[in-house]
Every structure is written in C-alpha cells, then in structure tokens.
Amino acid sequence: MMDEVHGNDHPLEILDTRIKWANLQDELQKVLTTGSKCRRTSFAHQIPGSVGFLSQVVLIDLHWFPQVPKLPSKVVLKVPISKPHEPNPEDVETPAERLEPLLQALFQAEHSFYDFYRSIENLHIPKPPVPHFYYAAKFEKNHEYLVFEYLHDTHHFHIWDNFNETQIDQVLLAIAKTQACGYLRDSNSRPGLDQKMMKTLYKDCFPVEEMLELLHKMPAFYGEELQPLVEKLAQTHQKIWDLDIEKKVCKKLGIKPALIHGDMWSTNILWEADDHNKLRALLDWQMTHHGNPAADLIRLFNSCMSGVHRRRYWKDYLRIMHKHLTHAMGTHPVPYTYEQAFDAYVFHYPMETFLYLPPLNPIVANANRSEEPELAQKRKSIVAEKVKCMMEDILEFQR
C-alpha cells in the first residue's frame, strides 16, 4: 500500500485548520499535474507570529513519492479563523457573527487579486513582486483557503524598524507597478476588488465607537503626554470619520481609482535575508481594492519612517513614486499628476491614519510580550514617537 497521507496513522486534518490532508494532496496533484503522492512523513507547523487578523498561516513540508525535481518541498496555507486573534485582554471583543461577512470578503479580495495577477503573470507589463499562487479551494461552506509558494531565506521588519531610503524606494517602485498593472489591464472590472470590503470592515465589524475606545487607551500605553491629543481627536472625530473618503477624493480630484494593496505596512513587506535592501515580495493582499492611489503611501510612511523623517521627506517620496509610475506606464498616459497625488494624500491622511492608529496598542504589546523589558520599552518608545506625530498631523491636515 502506498505510504501516503491517507494512511490510518496520519492525522486526517492539518493542525486545527479543518482542512484534510487528503484534500490538500488531491488539489496539489491537479495544480501541479503530477501523479506523485505525499508520504505520511509530510507534516505541518504553525509559522511563529503568523496568526494575524482573521487568518493563520501554516507551513507544509511535503515529502513526495516518487520524488520529482519540479515539485515544491514546502507550501504555505493561508486559512481563515472563525474569530479574530485576541492575544491582549485589552482588545475590544467583536462578536463572531459580525465577522463572517468580513471573513468572506477578505479572502475573496485576496483570491481575486491573485486571479488577476495570474492573468498578467506572463505579460510584459510592470508587476509587483508577490509569492506564486497555486490555488484556492473551499473547505467549508462559504470558506476557502489559499495556497502559496514558500519563500526561503527572507526577512521582515516591524513597526519599530525604520526603513532607509533604498528600502523606501524599493517599496515605492512596487506600489507604482501595482497601480500600473491595474490601470493597464483594467483591474477595475474585476469582481471582489471594490471598496465594499473596506466598508464592511469598519462599519459592521469595527465601528467608530470601538475605534475610539481603543484610541482612549493609547495614553496609558504610550505615555500620558498623548492625552490632550487623544481628547482633540475624539472631539473632532466626526469630521474625520468618513468610510467613503477614498471614493470622494478620487471623484473630487478627477482621479481614476487605483489598484492598491490596502495594508502596506512593515510586516507585509518581505526582504532578502542576506540583503535587506532587496525587496522580495509584498504579502497579504486581503485588503486590496480600488481606491485613492495615495492610500498605500500614507500607511507605508506612517509605519516605516520615524515621525520626524516622514514629515521632512513625504513630499519628496511622493514625487519619486510618481516618477516610478510614469516610467511604469510606458507610452500610456499617466493616470494622475503629482499635484493630484499631493492633494489626494492631504485629503485622505486624517481618515487613513485614524484607522491605522488604534490597533497599534495590541500589535506592539503582543509582539513584545516575551521580550526583555528593556528591549520592549525601547521599541515602544520608537512607536510612541510615530504615534504622537501621527496624531498631531491628523489634526493639522484636518484643518
């Protein structure tokens, strides 16, 4: 009898994902067009720190028989979880039933993006670097999991790590390529890539009241000097909070919505392990949609630069991004001017940053829970500087 994962002494399910080993093998055989099967020695393990917002990432070590050089020895599964990861008791609880539409929308958006990417993969047009996508498959009613290549020898930074000029430029180029391929191949017509998912996220699952509750906890975490800023933000939040801001900005400025990543921050940017100035891939496209072309820049600058550096150079980096886009569009018209990009950044900054700020408490606390107190405090101080500058600039741009 073939020594494969259907054997009686091999677990039926992959960890606690509710995905069956036999189904994974069958789908991989179809996609890879192989008759090889997975031995019982194949195994799965949770990638440390990979349980994120409504999803977990599992690394699968595949032992094929017979062995064929083209077959991957590892793949990555991205699997939805039934409730958000809540490592910090201070997190705001969100009822599971409110998360179901969002869970489906997030995975549909990422699946739609990779279907679009696959349609242009062999075309000679600019494209951002992403992991190879093998397939998506349903494993429960209304739920699907995604399977990607495993990228060896990589490194990612966190929010307390500030990027250098070369690193920022690499990401700006990737953002420009993302927008260019969307414009050139009309990704706007793709289902699942509209802004409805963003409204589902913040209207139904994380309404303004819960965001304000998290915001009010920030002074206790980062320092009481933030209290006056938090009070001002709370007082003016009704002028800031607008879930249609991206659509309004594009319409006001006459900009065709761009294909954007939607969550362009430090941990979703992967670098070569032996060369941190060489971008390897952009990850987690579950919040991708068509919207304000400045949105990814706002989140990138907020997370990957100190507040002081961002304030001093954001206009310069915006101009560099526009030059990259101009080059990426080739002989085709550039969709918007630098001046339009500038205004789009200014108009959108308050709302985009208001959405980004509150979750930083649990993110930073959880990531440093097992670290030495001195190191954890140093990291918190770096983030506190960014937070203070972001709060001040929300109020400044709102004027």
Secondary structure: elements and pairs:
Elements: H1 21-32, E1 37-38, E2 43-46, E3 55-61, E4 64-65, E5 74-80, H2 96-120, E6 133-140, E7 143-149, E8 154-156, H3 165-184, H4 196-205, H5 208-216, H6 218-222, H7 227-240, H8 245-253, E9 258-260, E10 269-272, E11 275-282, E12 289-291, H9 295-304, H10 307-328, H11 338-356, H12 360-367, H13 373-398
Antiparallel strand pairs: 1-4, 2-3, 3-5, 5-7, 6-7, 8-10, 9-12, 10-11
Instruction: Work out the helicity level.
Output: 40-55%
Beginning-to-end CA distance, first to last residue? 73 Å
What is the spatial order of strands in the main beta sheet? 2-3-5-7-6
| Rg from Cα | 22 Å
What is the general shape? globular
What string gives the helices and strands in order? HEEEEEHEEEHHHHHHEEEEHHHHH
Give the tally of β-strands.
12
Query: Could you name the ranges where pLDDT drops below 50 across 5 or more consecutive residues?
Result: 83-90
Beta-strand share of residues:
5-15%
Tell me what the CATH architecture of the largest domain is: Alpha-Beta Complex
CATH class category of the largest domain:
Alpha Beta
Question: How many helical stretches?
Answer: 13
Structure, described:
With 399 residues, the chain is α+β, with helices and mostly antiparallel strands. It has 2 domains: 21-80, no CATH class; 96-130 and 154-398, Alpha-Beta Complex (Aminoglycoside 3'-phosphotransferase, Chain: A, domain 2). 47% of the residues lie in helices and 15% in strands. It has helices at 21-32, 96-120, 165-184, 196-205, 208-216, 218-222, 227-240, 245-253, 295-304, 307-328, 338-356, 360-367, 373-398; strands spanning 37-38, 43-46, 55-61, 64-65, 74-80, 133-140, 143-149, 154-156, 258-260, 269-272, 275-282, 289-291. A 5-stranded antiparallel beta sheet has the order 2-3-5-7-6, sandwiched between helices. A 3-stranded antiparallel beta sheet has the order 8-10-11, covered by helices on one side. The longest helix has 26 residues, at 373-398. InterPro entries: CHK_kinase-like (IPR015897), Dhs-27 (IPR012877), Kinase-like_dom_sf (IPR011009), Oxido-Kinase-like_Enzymes (IPR052961). This is CHK kinase-like domain-containing protein. Residues 146-331 form the CHK kinase-like domain.
